[in-house]
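stage 2 :: seqdesign
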């Protein structure tokens, strides 16, 4: 990231369309994201506007490996699918050793030194040509969550020297910001005072400020993945 003073994406700047043009608005957006865990195995995110209209919903696994989260529009159609990269050591285990408990312990211990990576595809696809973007932790050792975002045409992380977007923060850090180069394009905050009770129950809300012409579905997807990293396992 550039070290110069950061600016903000404003009205008149070119659209930032990652998921789709329909998610870019010419004015700033204020959204509420409500998160809760269902049956201790699945979590649910609901995105609403100030009038209470549902704009997006995200469902997926709250624990374990092969995590997948699916984003749907208000009509129930799948917008995109987020998949966490599976560690090869776990994939090599066979039942009954490959238990959910072992997977959770493994990711909590190994998470100290392993970077997490997500791949996001349009719709339900897994095909390379439908890849929208890739997300990877900037540093596995950092106390503050920090992730780099690479668009599909720049998704070879090993060979790429610069990310397309950078996001940092999460629940435990109270704030969450997304940058394109040196420009702030979105910001997130927790809407209530932190309590261990709400955190352990997996029930809390985010307020999301999306700058003009910025793809809000892209921002929400980033929020879900950063929140997942903050929750460790």
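stage 2 :: out
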């Amino acid at each position: 990231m550039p070290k110069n003073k950061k600016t903000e994406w404003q009205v008149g700047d070119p659209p930032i369309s990652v998921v789709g043009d329909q998610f870019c608005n010419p004015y700033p957006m204020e959204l509420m994201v409500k998160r809760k865990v269902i049956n201790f195995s699945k979590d649910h995110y609901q995105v609403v506007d100030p009038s209470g209209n549902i704009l997006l919903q995200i469902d997926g696994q709250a624990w374990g490996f092969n995590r997948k989260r699916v984003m749907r529009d208000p009509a129930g159609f799948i917008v995109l699918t987020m998949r966490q990269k599976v560690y090869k050591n776990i994939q090599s285990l066979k039942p009954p050793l490959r238990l959910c408990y072992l997977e959770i312990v493994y990711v909590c211990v190994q998470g100290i030194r392993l970077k997490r990576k997500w791949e996001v595809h349009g719709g339900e696809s897994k095909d390379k040509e439908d890849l929208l973007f890739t997300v990877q932790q900037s540093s596995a050792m950092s106390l503050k969550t920090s992730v780099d975002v690479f668009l599909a045409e720049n998704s070879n992380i090993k060979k790429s020297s610069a990310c397309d977007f950078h996001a940092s923060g999460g629940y435990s850090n109270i704030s969450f910001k997304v940058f394109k180069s040196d420009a702030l394009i979105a910001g997130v905050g927790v809407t209530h005072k932190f309590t261990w009770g709400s955190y352990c129950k997996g029930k809390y809300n985010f307020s999301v400020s999306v700058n003009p012409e910025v793809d809000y579905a892209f921002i929400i997807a980033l929020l879900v993945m950063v929140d997942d990293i903050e929750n460790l396992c």
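stage 3 :: structure notes
- Residues 29-137+187-231 form a domain with the Porin fold (CATH 2.40.160).
- The chain is about 15% helix and 35% strand.
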